[in-house]
Specification:
Blueprint lengths: L1 H32 L11 E3 L2 H12 L7 E4 L3 E2 L8 E5 L2 E10 L1 E4 L8 E5 L2 E7 L2 E5 L7 E5 L2 E3 L2 E2 L2 E4 L7 E2 L2 E5 L2 E3 L2 E2 L3 E3 L5 E4 L2 E4 L4 E3 L2 E2 L3 E2 L2 E4 L2 E4 L4 E3 L2 E2 L3 E2 L2 E4 L2 E4 L11 E3 L2 E2 L3 E2 L2 E4 L2 E8 L2 E2 L12 E4 L2 E7 L2 E2 L3 E2 L2 E4 L2 E8 L2 E2 L3 E3 L1 E4 L2 E4 L5 E3 L2 E2 L3 E3 L5 E2 L2 E4 L9 E3 L2 E2 L23 H5 L6 E2 L11 E2 L13 E8 L3 E4 L4 E5 L4 E7 L3 E8 L2 E2 L8 E4 L2 E6 L6 E9 L12 E5 L2 E6 L4 E6 L4 E6 L3 E6 L6 E6 L2 E4 L3
Parallel strand pairs: 1-2, 2-5, 3-5, 4-7, 5-8, 6-9, 7-10, 8-11, 8-12, 9-13, 10-15, 11-16, 12-17, 13-18, 14-19, 15-20, 16-21, 17-22, 18-23, 19-24, 20-25, 21-26, 22-27, 23-28, 24-29, 25-30, 26-31, 27-32, 28-33, 29-34, 30-35, 31-35, 32-36, 34-37, 35-38, 36-39, 37-41, 38-42, 39-43, 40-44, ...
Antiparallel strand pairs: 54-55, 56-58, 57-59, 59-63, 60-61, 60-64, 62-63, 65-66, 66-69, 67-68, 67-70, 70-71
Length: 648
């Protein structure tokens, strides 16, 4: 009997202890993350402040967690908040509700940098990073370094993405590396930059994909620069991945494998397992590189139903080997080019070096030094083919014996080099090619007009009834949701006075309308950022969106318009500042509170003596009191054109 009682008491105590532990864990969980909500799909955790963002890092960095749902309830300003990538593996779901995170600054000296280190079996939708500066020395992106079996939908990045390491990469505007994930309806408008000597795999949306990946209906407007394998949408597209219904309007440049949509596209080990393609995509941006450069892809495998209307290649023809309106190298079907294509050797309206071109046309002007053709630059591989195509363009080549209306050069020699051009037409006075050998009997030697070409039975083409293509035949069943258009581009020249640094430091940026340029500004010791002059007009503290301070970082963001622009950052010495007053403006310090007596509507900025902006805004008129964080080494105050040095 007593043994039974003791057993009962022990069991009771164990259950009480278990419940107590569960209760303590529950309380601890609430204390640790502290979000409003329950974390379920019906009642998600609510994210409404910078503190809530930081708690994500604390919560997921502590170890594996069960899936949870989050909802962003308002725009969040990260000004003055030091942010590190959310560690651990984020397996939750965030509904951004079309809200924005502003002034996000993440800098990692040795390692990767992004808002999330890993997203696994999770998702983020309808969230924008509206301004910021994200820098690392390996893999870098705005939202996630890696995504595995996850999805991103309706997300946009405006922040500058910089990978500084010599071997940096992959680098992406939104995600650096994806595996078995879906990226849909996402947009990059920020700078994506990796210029280390051996850096590569850089994309405006995604750096690289690793299998079973879908990139759908995405767009890039930002500047994308790298060394090898650079794409406006994706740097490296795996052999089992798809990119479709996407477009690029940004300036994309690199050395090798550079494309408006993809830098490179992998080949499968077994051809029967091949399911990778670029489909229904277009480029309107300027694409520049030294080897294997194309409006859609650099070195790619398959392009279907796509077009280029942007400028491809170096207009001086000084550099560029294998440059094409659609691709530097690859297979292209049911596609066309309207953009100008330039380069040095192997320059073609569709492909720089031909594998297969079928049911395509070119109407863009082509220029180069040798091996220049209306459809393909060089046709020198094994069993290459151009079939059911036409060219109507101006063609310029410095070498008189290696250019033609269809190709710049065809190699007919040997059994395995059975290269063919069939059912292909053109309306220039040029011959098919500069090659002097025998041309097959099925080559159509024509000088037909658009109307005459429209009468020819070219497989896969229909008549241009509306006249949208100047009477030249159109590819059958080929329509875009968004009308392809050439990007409106401006040149933004950025300079600064001495005694301060600007990151990124490029002096001139070719930026499309719709992009965003964000710069990190760092005054030298004893100096401060005294003014920002855009197109000759001071914009200092004009609006919160244009200038922000995060910890020891000053960020300035600028959105170009069609006109060319100049931006000058001035850094001034603190010791040269003396209190300036007039009868309209008075500035003083009263028990740690900045007091301003002035007319309404004047922009003001409050600085620490090392040049960091504490706060800014516009005066309301009369005596205005501004409370600043305590224990700061106060203080410079600028109101309109007047500056007061309140304390050392």
């Amino acid at each position: 009997m007593f043994a039974g009682v003791n057993l009962y008491v022990k069991l009771k105590l164990m259950l009480m202890k278990k419940n107590y532990v569960m209760f303590i864990c529950f309380l601890y969980s609430l204390v640790v993350h502290g979000w409003d909500g329950q974390g379920t799909m019906e009642a998600p955790y609510l994210i409404s402040s910078a503190k809530d963002i930081l708690m994500l890092g604390e919560y997921y960095g502590a170890g594996d967690k069960d899936p949870a749902w989050f909802r962003v309830t308002q725009d969040i300003d990260m000004q003055g908040v030091a942010v590190s990538p959310v560690g651990g593996s984020f397996n939750g779901y965030i509904d951004g509700q079309h809200h924005a995170i502003k002034n996000l600054v993440i800098e990692v000296e040795n390692g990767g940098a992004a808002l999330f280190s890993r997203v696994t079996n999770g998702g983020i939708k309808d969230l924008t990073i509206a301004s910021g500066y994200i820098k690392g020395n390996s893999t870098v992106a705005a939202f996630a370094l890696t995504a595995n079996e996850s999805w991103f939908s309706g997300c946009t990045n405006h922040a500058t993405i910089i990978a500084e390491g010599r071997y940096a990469g992959p680098v992406g505007g939104l995600v650096a590396t994806c595996t078995a994930s879906v990226i849909r309806s996402c947009v990059n408008k920020g700078i994506v930059l990796a210029e280390g000597e051996n850096s590569g795999i850089v994309g405006g949306i995604v750096g690289s994909t690793n299998g079973m990946e879908t990139i759908d209906s995405c767009a890039n407007y930002g500047v994308v620069k790298g060394v090898a394998t650079v794409g406006g949408i994706v740097g490296s597209l795996s052999s089992n991945d798809e990119a479709y219904r996407s477009y690029n309007m940004g300036y994309v440049s690199g050395k090798s494998n550079v494309g408006g949509i993809a830098g490179s596209q992998g080949l499968p080990l077994i051809s029967e397992n091949d399911s990778s393609y670029i489909y229904m995509s277009w480029n309107g941006g300027e694409i520049v590189g030294e080897e294997c450069v194309g409006g859609i892809g650099g070195d790619v495998k398959t392009i279907y139903y796509s077009c280029n209307v942007g400028q491809v290649g170096d207009v001086t023809n000084a550099i560029g080997t294998y440059v094409g309106g659609l691709c530097g190298s690859g297979n292209v079907s049911y596609s066309y080019n309207l953009g100008q294509v330039n380069g040095n050797t192997g320059i073609g309206g569709i492909a720089g070096t031909v594998s297969s071109i079928e049911t395509c046309f070119n109407r863009g002007d082509i220029s180069g030094k040798q091996g220049v053709g209306g459809l393909g630059g060089l046709m020198e591989g094994t069993s290459c083919e151009i079939n059911a195509c036409y060219n109507s363009s101006k063609i310029h080549c410095e070498s008189v014996d290696s250019f033609g209306a269809v190709t710049g050069y065809i190699y007919y020699g040997g059994f395995i080099n059975s290269n063919e051009v069939k059912e292909t037409y053109w309306n220039t006075d040029l011959e098919l090619t500069g090659y002097s050998g025998t041309i097959g009997s099925d080559i159509q030697m024509t000088g037909l007009s658009g109307t005459d070409l429209a009468k020819q039975p070219i497989a896969g083409f229909v008549s241009d009834i509306s006249g949208a293509n100047g009477g030249f035949p159109l590819i059958e069943n080929f329509e875009f949701t968004d009308q392809p258009q050439m990007a409106e581009t401006s040149i933004v020249t950025v300079t600064g006075s001495e005694n301060g640094l600007i990151y990124p430091a490029n002096n001139e940026w070719r930026s499309s309308v719709g992009s965003c340029l964000s710069f990190k500004l760092l005054p030298d010791e004893g100096y401060y950022l005294s003014d920002i002059i855009v197109d000759g007009i001071s914009v200092m503290a004009a609006s919160e969106e244009e200038l922000s301070d995060t910890s020891d970082v000053i960020i300035y963001s600028f959105q170009p318009t069609l006109s060319n622009h100049s931006i000058v950052f001035n850094f001034s010495q603190l010791s040269d500042i003396s209190t300036v007053k007039d009868k309209q403006t008075d500035i003083w310090l009263e028990q740690g509170v900045v007091c301003i007596n002035s007319e309404p509507g004047l922009p003001y900025s409050v600085y620490t003596v090392d040049g960091r902006i504490i706060c800014q805004g516009k005066t309301s008129g009369g005596v205005q009191k501004i409370t600043v964080q305590q224990k700061l080494p106060l203080l410079l105050v600028k109101v309109g054109g007047y500056i007061s040095k309140l304390a050392e």
